[in-house]
Design brief:
The protein is an alpha/beta fold. The protein has 9 helices and 8 strands. It is globular. Bound molecules: nickel (II) ion. Nickel (II) ion (NI) binds at residues 9, 11, 37, 94, 204.
Amino acid sequence: METKIINTHSHINMLKEYSTEAAIKELEQENIIAIVPASSPTDIFEVDDVIKKSKNLYGYVGVFPEEAREFTDKTLLDMENIIKNNNKIVGIGEIGLDYYWDKTFKDKQKEVFIKQIHLANELNLPLNIHSREAHFDTLEILKKYNKNSVAIMHCFSGSLEFAKECIKNGIYISLGGVVTFKNAKNAKDVAANIPIEYLLLETDDPYLTPVPFRGKENRPSYVKYVAQEIANLRNCPITEVAQKTTENALKIFPQLLD
Ligand code: NI
């Protein structure tokens, strides 16, 4: 497609069935920019490396809730160092709360989430947020602790009502492959009805592969199927979804303009 698409959440360094090099080539050929989130204290270094391989890649550094126990003071220093030395790091993520897998260390998750919000605020960087079965607490923490960073709810999984509540607080809604699933009533409802000014696209590859490739490994370039489904749901051309979501992303991440 001629219109540029920005995929705001792609773990391109975690692909297994497809090589990262081939995935990069696809992005370059298809005019897609991808931002690669980090999930653990070691993954931040992988993100730092992989995004240097293409002009179409940028990154976030952060530790996600399932890895909260591994987060130390050294992790915070490592993150700061990477940010200082790599100007393609454009945000902090993915960070947040996840009560789906394990509810036994909620306090630790919250503590690590808040520490990373502070870092983002200090450096005035956007936040890429992971929230699963923890919507209320995630929003409460953002309202209470986030002073000046733009926040994005990655792979948004809440209701339309919750999406509106987020938007009221200036939070962006990012949708991925789930929106293409037949039974994803919430995601379709959100995609069709939120103001397009708050919408962003992503894949969360290698997970959550969109239809028509559901069941296979996801790829960063499949963001176009997400865009197409949203266009169908909103009764508009895919170019409009691509253009508007790219505009939104460039507002949040002006470094991507190059
Ligand atoms: Ni992710």
